[in-house]
Amino acid sequence: MKKLTLTILLFFILSGCIPNPLLKTPSDLDKQHFKQTVTIDDHPSNTVVTFSTIKGVQEKQGTHNVVLNDNFLRGFFNKETNAKTYQVYNVVYYAASGSDSRWKHFEQANYQTPVGDKITPTTLIKEDEDCSAINLYGQCLYSEHVTFKVDEAWLKRVATSYAPRPPTDNIWRYMLISKSGDSHKDKLLKAEVAGLLERMTQYASLPTNLQGKAPPMKSGTAYDPSRTPEPLVKPQPAKDVLPMIKP
Fold it and tell me: Would you tell me which of 58, 60, 75, 185 could form a disulfide with 51, CB atoms 3.0–4.6 Å apart?
């Protein structure tokens, strides 16, 4: 039996497929994980600090570790007014060709609240068309970066309902409504919401001399980070993504 065990272990070592007992699935990630992985853009020249959960979790697929679609939270803290605002950031990939080659245009988002579904407009941050692999797959790859605002009161309610252990439903679901084509259903972990809110509260409680106070803005130099593409989003090659997209 020992010889068999050693043989199996040697196979995993040589093949590079050693099981990692510490590897967690997205549903196992807790509030503390997301709080620790929040990125903070606090440039002294900017009045607004940007917080993001982009590094919290990314589901990768296939041999090329493709991030087929991505979504995360961004929060913004105004160092002059102490105001906080929030948005859900989505990167959606899809394929089209011929007469179907058109943008889906995700113009609205729909999410559930205690008083019913709420429909809110989205903002297009960036879009891209990649036809580099059309000879291989007969399709072009499209991507849209869209965001929608979420009230702080609702996010606090989502965060409060987070529990560190199942069977509590720790998922917040929403849907992007397309102008042309199928809608896109997605979700965020409540732990992600709770982690971001706590990290922003922690920052806001710092003494002002540790917050990187920005100088007064000059007329005509207003900067709106909520309309800026997330710099840590890496474009996915069409040759890797198109085989992963269901027709």
Answer: 75
